[in-house]
Amino acid sequence: MAHTGFNQNLIDFLSNSPTPWHATRNMAKALDKAGFQALDEREEWNLKQGQGYYAIRNGSSIIAFRTGKRSPLEAGVRMVGAHTDSPCLKVKPNPELRRKGFFQLGVEVYGGVLLNPWFDRDLSLAGRVTVLDGQGRVRDCLVDFLRPVAFIPSLAIHLDREANANRSINNQTDLPPVLMQVPEDDKTAFSDLIREQLGKEYPDVEVNKVLGYELSFYDAQPANLSGLRDEFITSARLDNLLSCFIGLRSLIDSSGGEPALLVCNDHEEVGSMSAEGAQGPFLSSVLDRWCGPENRSRVIARSMMVSADNAHGVHPNFSDRHDENHGPLLNQGPVIKVNHNQRYATNSRSAALYRHISDELGLPYQTFVVRSDMGCGSTIGPLTAANLGVTTLDIGVPQLGMHSIRELCGTRDGYTLYQVLTAFMQRPDVG
Q1: pLDDT tops 80 at residue 2
Q2: pLDDT tens string 259-282
Q3: pLDDT digits (tens, 9 = 90+) for 48-100
Q4: Longest Cα pair distance anywhere in the chain, in angstroms?
Q5: Phi, psi of 408, deg, nearest 5
Q6: DSSP codes joined into one string, 15-66
Q7: Where are the strands (E) in 169-318, listed by range?
Q8: What is the pLDDT of residue 283?
Q9: Which member of 10, 43, 139, 222 has the greatest number of CB atoms within 10 A?
Q10: How far apart are CA 152 and CA 168, in angstroms?
Q11: Mean pLDDT over residues 153-158, rounded?
């Protein structure tokens, strides 16, 4: 089937992208292979028509674009947005804890983590480390322990008889993972363990000192096909690396005839207020350098943004949590997300274009509206729409287990969204 190879590449991307830095690096490698040229924000840009380019900020956010054969002033820009971060447990700056012979690390909860599934799982550790090397230079290194190195054990039910009825989690005291056993006089510093890992991954780099790190724990189990008929994909970080992968493949596989852009921001899960987040200036800066700041308003008036972020599929055990007329089903098509209180940026015009393209391709789509008595989440869509003034659509692949350490989606929906976004990126009329 057409989506089989697409899904296998998706599974590889998910398994090899445990952090935003690794995801961004893997996207850059794919862009390099496709002939896109890397840009440095510190240098002058000399952009040419019909070429592909990308820029990275903080190592964790990336913007890639095709200049197209027509000027953005004439054609507008077809934009797709997603985010590289996912809820997780991040290691604190001074994390060492020694209790009853166990060596543990203090962690900070990042984003809206569904905490219970983090217990009793094989955990690994990955992220960015900043070091002083042997030449006296400050440099960044990405590390990934790859194998299980930590575990957060549950308290046995014999010691907590109410566990199945009422077990709350204290973020400070209940979550520090166990990494190893140590003697009472142990003086191991976490930086020593990082140096050991750096020696394995960067044998040619002399590390004089570990100056800082941004490391997070992740599920060591790789992404997989699941279900008796392989109709599901199970993985960590489906929200929202799935959308990053779809947007990446759509941009690379589009014809390149029209100006098109992919932005994958970090920090969406904590509000997007950062230099590389959707509330920051990264996208505006790239557009200004591409189109000219004096032309940006005219370009935006002809452009459209598709904010791709996964949607809440109907849970078979909790179907009453959805509006009865707006319950998306897995493998029944991507989900147009609507909220008239502007938690999603979709309007009738942006939704109509997506429906029109889908109808032309003979592909399915669904619509989600949250129950009127429940709060609604949000995406980078409203933030980008407000910052740029661009017509925006919020859409996403339906999934279950959102913000868990392990999530589930259908095998057909991602490929469907890829087909529509590829057509969108090469469509002559969007503005």
Answers
A1: no
A2: 999 999 999 999 999 999 999 999
A3: 999 999 999 999 999 999 999 999 999 999 999 999 999 999 999 999 999 99
A4: 71
A5: -140, 135
A6: HT-SSHHHHHHHHHHHHHHTT-EEE-TTS-----TT-EEEEEETTTEEEEEE
A7: 178-181, 207-219, 224-226, 232-235, 260-265, 304-308, 311-312
A8: 97
A9: 10
A10: 15
A11: 94
Give the separation between CA 53 and CA 43, rounded to whole angstroms.
14
**Integer Cα distance of 430 and 73 in angstroms:** 13
* Residue 106 in tokens: 């203090």
Indicate whether 202 pLDDT > 90: yes
**CB count, 10 Å around CB of 406?**
18
- pLDDT over 90, % of the chain: 91
Q: Are 88 and 218 in contact (CB under 8 A)?
A: yes
Backbone phi, then psi, for 22, in 5-degree steps?
Answer: -70, -40
Strand locations in 220-316, DSSP E?
A: 224-226, 232-235, 260-265, 304-308, 311-312
The residue behind tokens 């590389």 is 276
Tokens standing for residue 184: 């009472």
Q: Is the peptide bond before 240 cis (omega within 30 degrees of 0)?
A: yes
Cα 119 to chain center, whole Å?
23
Distance, CA of 317 to chain centre: 27
User: What's the average model confidence in pLDDT over 293-321?
Assistant: 95
Strands (E) in 222-358, as ranges, are 224-226, 232-235, 260-265, 304-308, 311-312, 335-337
CATH fit for domain 2-86+236-425, picks 3.40.309.10, 3.40.630.10, 3.40.50.1700, 3.40.190.10: 3.40.630.10
Q: How far apart are the first and last CA of the chain?
A: 34
Mean pLDDT value of segment 350-366: 97
- The encoded tokens of residue 198 equal 């750096």
Q: Which of 384, 411, 379 is nearest to 397 (CA)?
A: 411
Can you give the pLDDT at residue 1?
57
Query: In this structure, what is the dihedral angle of CA atoms 249, 250, 254, 258, given to the nearest 10 degrees?
Result: -130
Between CA 330 and CA 321 the distance in angstroms is: 16
Domain chopping of the chain, boundaries? 2-86+236-425, 88-219
**Residue 322 reports pLDDT greater than 60:** yes
The domain made up of 88-219 is a member of CATH 2.30.250.10: yes
Q: Label residue 49 exposed, middle or buried (CB < 10 Å: 0-12, 13-18, 19+).
A: exposed
- Bridging pattern class, strands 61-66 and 52-57: antiparallel
Quote the DSSP letter at residue 101.
T
Would you state the pLDDT for residue 375? 85
